[in-house]
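To: structure subgroup
Subject: Chain for Friday's discussion

All,

I'm putting the inputs and outputs inline so they're searchable in the archive.
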Amino acid sequence: MKTVFGIVVMYGCVLLSAYGGFAQGKFSLSISGAPTYSYSKTKQSVLIPDIGKGGFIPLDLASRSTGRGYTIGLLGRYALQPKWSVSTGIWMSYNQTDVPTFETSMPVDHSPFGRTRSRHYQVPILVNFQSSARRLSPYFSVGTLFSFRSPTYLNIGNDQEIRLETDKHRVTVVPTVGVGAIYRMSNHLSLSVQPTFNYYLPQGTYSSYFSGRASLQTQLFYTF
């Protein structure tokens, strides 16, 4: 919590100082929100204890999971040129996964898999391109999210959860791309809608791996 509070204060100071120093019309603040859908499908070989003989034996594991959630946040955007801009800020992301399906190379007596929920704080750094100065224009974004991990909660049945520590101070880099449109409602207000895709880089060794999240990022800009 102290880390998140420090990030919020830092970005608040950066955005305020930017407003004081940037030329009029180049700096915008936006509030953003999006529903999200995540999908993961992986195959890997893991080692499990061999209770009968001691040591470990390899287990081939294939899993698939889906999840739903949302993101909300605050972004600052600075126009480098009429068509190009950069933006950064902070997002809070919430995600709840369904019970995953999996296949193994041998029978397993008990599965630790279940429904999970988690919350992450993310710092996006994006380069944006607006293809025209017309009131309605295509709008593209590309960059990365720096995602700060937090505990994940695993549902073990009967409305009970256990807390899983997953390197909560570890930062994950998440490539991001968005393609949509921006509409200028007035000299100060604009609205953008972008279908956006995040790709989560593998944090281990897999024979097959895909983990991504799709969202409909909606931002309301106020230009100073």
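Points worth raising on Friday:
The radius of gyration is 21 Å.
The chain has a mean pLDDT of 83.

D.
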